[in-house]
């Protein structure tokens, strides 16, 4: 009865919630969110700089998240670069002096909290003691407005507690504070015309631990003084907007931490550091433009290539509309084939030809999707937040997806080792784990980092296994086949290089699998071509394959231990345009070296398995164990034991560098394959849930960079502000729909761009090669490094 209910429940879900309906819902949701965010940004007031200064929340201990944008954590060298030849003045009481100390410690972490100046040849930061907003403070501001040579570039000031203390918190003092501040505000506005001025709102106090001579300083009175300051400074607006910025974020942070104050008045160091880092981001982000600091940044206008891409997609949409109006509907879109996303996508077998409208329809859909990509990660429309790792943010979603995977378990159509459904399932659950790893910031936790490194190696293992198996069994080394694979691997990335203004190497996984496909093809296609048919005639050919694999291993080892030679090869033009990032091939060297043996591991496994299969050594019938009972039990025990040993080793690693040095030589991929395939019942079932994601795994991996994560993987896209859980659900739903649609578009265009006629194919290859070269030469501007 339970099994029947389970089966009916799945059918009911699949019947009503189709992928087509999901995409329509996603389109409506995106349009609604676009209207909402546009209205909020341009009609509701406020920008990312105002959000940075005014509000935020703690993600965890000492980790501050401004509302709607990402705050960069400045290092000393960055702060010195930003503030070179800038004068920064802090004006106020002892709490402003503490903020001053925290600010200069960003510039010089060794700085001691004594003295009111920090000077060297290019840096000048001062603290000036003016504990009350009175005539003395006003005279100082007036002197700065008249003496341009001594005027600070940045002024941070604030005062109130001394006025409350000296006058016992009387209401007359508050009124005088308003009068004084009104007189001061005029000069603050003048200073702000040619510099930056920040008024720091008063932080709360811990009334219970205040000394007797400070008991009159209450949070209620401080709130009245803050309201007075905000009213006065906002009423001094010129051209409808005050140039004086109010710093309220540190006050909000202090509301949660003031209980840790030693004297009840001065903030804990961690909270002061939040205020100092907020100020540093406000001053420096627009100058240094850090990729993980979206607050206070103005976005650059689209470059020439981006404008050309927009015109191309708009032109395609126009042609599609014209053909549609003319009634050119004599075509049917072929049913998408069951494709392998990370290694290859098999060409469509449908005999139904494309009509002239089909490619323009595909380009029109792609244009809409690229517009969404641009809005998410290159336009100032949607919000961004930084990542923050906790064990719960990684492991709880992990449990959810594996429960779903078990719920969608089904019987396999075949029970061969690593059959198609099983490899799709494998790629699917690995991709979902990697997605959770990226969005949760789990690279900060070394044991998780090392286990995910195994998953990336497993993808490359499948690349070697899949391509070797195809060439060994089919022997198809034709140009059409090669172009199909290369197009399907690279189409999305090449489009993103143009639309998102990023170099090819930025999407590091695609260069990796493309490189290894070319290496596998070259190795197996070169003389002598050894295929299964030839090897069956004489066992000596098996030695020939092993000799080729040995040659490939020597090639890999030579490159791995000769970084100079590796650099000289991949730094040559035009290859360097493919593999350089930030003017260097260091990222490519790191990625290539990290999993350099995974592909040959997959090829060797494929060779041994196919030979054993041909000789009928394996028992692959339904329900039967792969080997005899004793051997199966021994291999299962060794596999499980190796997993345990690996996990213990990964947990004991102290640094990523140490772990990465050992990673290429330690692999538990074979152990997983044996555990998954030795028991006959395990080979007889698979998860259709994971397999579905496995078919679009490449698209998921690439799309996450810009429409699920943000700031080139450094942050998280925020579509639903104020509700992180709902935001993740909505952005994930849209992200998956987009990835699936791109997979279909790539399949459609592959049939048009890669014709089977050799002459036509060569002509198109020449045109595509020339166009790709131009694109690569022009997409070398804005660069950053993707996350782990």
How do the strands and helices of this protein lay out in sequence?
Blueprint: H1 2-16, H2 19-42, H3 48-54, E1 56-60, E2 63-66, H4 76-83, E3 87-92, H5 94-107, E4 117-119, E5 124-129, H6 135-146, E6 154-158, H7 161-166, H8 171-193, E7 196-200, H9 219-235, E8 244-247, H10 249-257, H11 269-288, H12 304-325, H13 357-377, E9 383-386, H14 391-407, E10 409-411, H15 420-439, H16 446-474, H17 479-499, H18 509-525, H19 532-537, H20 540-560, H21 563-570, H22 575-579, H23 586-594, H24 598-614, H25 629-652, H26 656-662, H27 669-677, H28 680-683, E11 685-687, H29 688-694, H30 697-707, E12 709-710, E13 715-718, H31 724-753, H32 758-778
Parallel strand pairs: 3-5, 3-6, 6-7, 7-8
Antiparallel strand pairs: 1-2, 4-5, 9-13, 10-11, 12-13
Helix pairs in contact: 2-31, 4-11, 5-11, 6-8, 8-9, 10-11, 12-13, 13-31, 14-15, 15-16, 15-29, 15-30, 16-18, 16-24, 16-25, 17-18, 17-31, 17-32, 20-24, 25-27, 30-31
What does this protein look like?
61% of the residues lie in helices and 7% in strands. The model is unreliable at 1-6 and 335-352 (pLDDT under 50). It is an alpha/beta fold and 788 residues long. The strands form 4 sheets. It has a 6-stranded mixed beta sheet with strand order 4-5-3-6-7-8, sandwiched between helices. It has a 3-stranded antiparallel beta sheet with strand order 9-13-12.
